[in-house]
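Annotators were shown the component list below and the corresponding predicted structure, then asked to write short factual statements about the assembly.
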Amino acid sequence: MTTTMQSIPLSPPAEPDRISLSQRLARRGLDVTTLLLVPALVFVLALFVYPALYGLWLSLHPMKANGVFGFGNYLSFFSNPYIYGTILTTLELAVPVTLINILLSVPIALRVRHMRKQRLLTTILIIPITLGTVLTAQGMLNFYGPLGWFNRTLMVLHVIDSPVRLVHNFTGVFLSQIVSGFPFCFMLILSYVSGIDPSLEQAGAMLGAGPTSRFRHIILPLLGAGLAITFCLAFVQAFSVFPSAVLVGAPSGPTRVIAIAAFHAAYEQYDYSMGSAIAIIMGLAQIIVVAIVMKASTALYRGPAAGGKG
Amino acid sequence: MTISAKNFRELRLERMRRDFGTHNALKDISLTIKRGEFIALLGPSGCGKSTALNCLAGLLPLTGGSIWVDETRIDHLKPEDRGFGMVFQNYALFPHMSLRKNIGFGLRMQNKPKDVIDAKVEEALSLVRLSTQGSKLPGQISGGQQQRVAIARAIVVEPPLVLMDEPLSNLDAKLRLEMRAEIRRIHNMIGCSTIYVTHDQDEALSLADRIVVLRDGEVRQVGTPQELYARPAHADVAEFMGYRNILKAEAESEVNGMLNMRLGAARLSGSAVEAMSGRDVVAALRPEDLTPSKDGPITASVISAEYRGRDFYGLARTEDGMELWFRSEIAVRPGEDLRLGAPADRVLVYPTRAA
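Structure shown to annotators:
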């Protein structure tokens, strides 16, 4: 073998300013493949950012002030208890529904994780999502209505004398939200629960921890961050309740949620500007709750839920 | 305050059995383990060794038989009530707890006073030489260190029995040797009994007081490392204990346990491990005992050879197509013809097992 070492001149290290623009961009992670982002970006700009900003612009140009810039819509929102009360009504509905769905999902997910027919059960649970809120509401009207099976059965059994009012009120919307929200919560939580290495629980058992201690010290801390995310997503979904509040609720009274107020302003009073203002307030209310939950969850463990490098 | 295993005399498995549907993963395993013993469950993957360990731990219910600690039957107890320690193959450290919290978990579950827990945790940390790392999370330390934490966590509660499920299989070769010595040192220090599952015969030979060879859910042989190494009871145990040449042969005559066989065209003498009934036999031979010599009975040509420091190990093929692993002190080259031979006491002969 011959060596060519001597024949190669020792070149000085490349000077930084000699590097081409494309190389410098590549060092920052930008190259031709970055262009693949463009369609998605256009999509987001056209279908989300622009409408949202347009809504904001609309809301700041109240129709009542003949389209002159001003905070009139926001002022009238917060000065009318019939309108600003919808925030509280919606919160009263969305927060308990979300919490109940999560509280129901966790123990069931913990059971289902070890089941063999898991797929069958998850299919059954997904059905309410695929049916949509309208069909669910229709079914509920038939089932829980004054002449529905539920009331009739209880009356035949002499448990009650007159029908219990379960629809066209707060309870109706509440139940409907649980029916349609539960599968979503459950599927999310099941995936978080399945992500916890089963050997961790076994290790806990081998160290003398019973089921309650294992849940408290191992499962719950590892699930915490996932529960926070589930809460946020399920809450946002429940907060924007509209169809069931109209169909199985009492949309002019106890279940006049904020989405109804926005709809009423925009499409019944034809005040798009006020409708936009309510929609923006609705978005802000959601952001505030989500921000509080996410902030509170920063204290939780958020690393991988596996026990080692195995 | 020192970590030392609780008192017990022996652990007995009586016809322990585990079926998965129609598959018998464990077939009537019976075994007695004395206090302080280090037992290795050795076998190829799928032989039931991990199943056996999980049954002992209580993570899998038995489908038959019983487990006893002295006079107490324990096979109906939940894992948390058995009080055994376990080291998992993937360590199973709690990722959200510091090393100290991980190690102290078992003591906290026993509601020990805080000062006792702290003292024992520090002792366990120094036992596995991680005293300075106690406040880190498991994700922040290396695999070998995680393994040591897993061991510390299992022994700090002073279990009578520590179960280890291939604890070294995720480590690199050098670390594996170090941890092997570490595990034995800790075992000797705290005086517990250890059941160690492995598929690595070197690990089993170097660590265990007794080795239990499992195959197809059955105990094939129980013995000291020396016994198993020198005289495996079955051809398949022999194969597992480093007898790489398992050769079909035909018995011709037997004199005082020495058997003359025909191996294709060659004649070879070996020692019968058990009484022979038919003419068809299997000869088991370690590569290191099969060496080239002038009057070696087997003629074969070298297919491949590799240098392993002091000598060469290679593969040769006879004219009948029989392949033989051998050792040579002098350099051999592929294509070269050799005469190979082995001392008769190193050739173990087994009857052919009815398939």
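Statements collected:
1. Residues 10-235 of chain B form a domain with the Rossmann fold fold (CATH 3.40.50.300).
2. The longest strand of chain B covers residues 23-34.
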